[in-house]
Amino acid sequence: MKRVTIRVPATTANLGPGFDAFGCALSLYTDVTFEETEWGLEITGCPEEFSGPDNLAYVSYCAVLASMNEDIKGLKIHIDAHIPICRGLGSSAALLVAGAMGANVLRGNKLSIQGLLNITNAMEGHPDNLAPAFLGGLTASMVDNGLPVCVNFPLHPDWEFLALIPDFTLSTEKARAALPTEYSRADAVYNIAHGALVLKALEKGDEKLLRNAMQDRIHQNYRRKLIPDYDQIEALVRTCGAAFCLSGAGPTLLCITQDEKLDEKLAKKLDSVTEHNWQMLPLHVEFQGARVIASE
Ligand code: HSE
């Protein structure tokens, strides 16, 4: 095989209290094509500043080959990204996953998904976007002795996810720098309890329980000040009866509901309470993880 295209789903991390642990794959995708050549690196389909050797898909591709003790001569990468950059929807994880899987497929699938998770987690630093990007669906992860352990959790089929994506970006680095390094025992207990009940509510399709459980004391309160309109939108979503959280490190805000008309209800009110332009994007859960969609 000479060329392969990998499709990777968008992912929302944390889901409220599951900081660096919970994640879910969503129906928005980045496709990346890899073709090994005789020499050089050519990356197309992305802004100029991302087309050098520090491109995450390339870095990940090289890391997988290095782990196999294999060399690379040249590589062409084409990126067709529908996951918006720096918005808290797993765009960086998608490139890491695509690069890792692309290298593995073109070199004969020598590594398992766990092997690819190990390599990409060492680069990303936390597995909460990587796990659903590889496995699909709802996932929870822990890191033990430096290695990620990731499992799928059941998810009720009726959930709708409504992403509210603003016209500004927020880097994960900046959003992580806003967090304290230590927390009280009360906050730790709060998040453990709420996290467990979020997973049960998502499994059972219990919207009332999800609304109550999807609260957090580890990251959201520290990050809300970095996101204009956060408080107004949270209040609005809660009056509409949906569960609400920050998607990953933000700035995308996420509503989880079984109300198929939530977007219509919010659309009527959103413009009057916000300064920025927020795109409403209805999404479903993607139960399939990263996969090959074309090869030759
Ligand atoms: N768990 C991560 C965070 C997700 O909230 O910082 C973003 O990479």
Strand content: 25-35%
What is the CA-based Rg, rounded? 19 Å
Write the element-wise H/E pattern from the N-terminal end onward. Answer: EEEHEHHHEEEHHHHHEEHEE
Largest sheet: 7 strands, mixed
Number of H- or I-type helical stretches: 10
Small-molecule components bound: L-homoserine
Number of strands: 11
Q: Give the CA-CA distance, first to last residue.
A: 6 Å
Low-confidence runs (pLDDT<50, min 5 residues)? Answer: none
* Mean pLDDT score: 96
Given the C-alpha coordinates, what overall shape results? globular
Q: What percent of residues adopt helix (DSSP H or I)? A: 25-40%
**Secondary-structure class:** alpha+beta
Explain this structure:
There is one protein chain. It contains ten helices and eleven strands. It has 296 residues and is an alpha+beta fold. Strands 1, 2, 3, 4, 5, 6 and 11 form a seven-stranded mixed β-sheet that branches. Strands 8-9-7-10 form a four-stranded antiparallel β-sheet. Helix 1 (56-67) packs across helix 3, helix 2 (91-106) crosses helix 3 and helix 9 (230-239) runs antiparallel to helix 10 (262-273). The longest helix is centred in the middle third of the chain and has 20 residues, at 185-204. The N and C termini lie close together (6 Å). Bound molecules: L-homoserine (HSE). Residues 13-14, 19-20, 126, 128-129, 172, 175-176, 219, 248-249 line the site of L-homoserine (HSE).
